Amino acid sequence: MFSISLLSCLFLGTVPALAQTGGERRLSPEKSEIWGPGLKAHVVLPARYFYIRAVDTSGEQFTSSPGEKVFQVKISAPDEQFTRVGVQVLDRKDGSFIVRYRMYASYRNLKIEVKHHGQHVAESPYVLRGLKKNFQG
């Protein structure tokens, strides 16, 4: 069955990525990229966001989805017992993702971890340090 589909792909002029590379492309957590305004403490938006770009072990960017659940994102406030943050990881189907999060409380410090199979991606974890409030009575 596989040989028939491979022959039809070759006849039509398209070669699947598996045939081109001799194996499945592997995502590289170290080479993948993370950037955006949601990684800066001074940017205040109702819903914050940042981007993830999937890159393989040879340094080539993915141009199609490497999988919907390939990145795990955890956002926590290390100084607090509970963290109320809603997180969405949106697959753009072009090798990039938008991570959108909304905080339901104010936190002095926020820790953003992005992982792939338990390994940190790019410069993860990111720590956003807020302004310390000095209350004087």
Automatic annotation (TrEMBL):
Spans of repeat Filamin: 24-130
Pfam families tied to this protein: Filamin
Position of the signal peptide: 1-19
Reaction it catalyzes: L-seryl-[EGF-like domain protein] + UDP-alpha-D-glucose = 3-O-(beta-D-glucosyl)-L-seryl-[EGF-like domain protein] + UDP + H(+); L-seryl-[EGF-like domain protein] + UDP-alpha-D-xylose = 3-O-(beta-D-xylosyl)-L-seryl-[EGF-like domain protein] + UDP + H(+)
InterPro entries, per database record: Filamin/ABP280_repeat-like, Filamin/ABP280_rpt, Ig-like_fold, Ig_E-set
MF-aspect GO terms: glycosyltransferase activity
Biological function: Protein glucosyltransferase that catalyzes the transfer of glucose from UDP-glucose to a serine residue within the consensus sequence peptide C-X-N-T-X-G-S-F-X-C. Can also catalyze the transfer of xylose from UDP-xylose but less efficiently. Specifically targets extracellular EGF repeats of proteins such as NOTCH1, NOTCH3, FBN1, FBN2 and LTBP1. May regulate the transport of NOTCH1 and NOTCH3 to the plasma membrane and thereby the Notch signaling pathway.
Record-given protein name: Protein O-glucosyltransferase 2
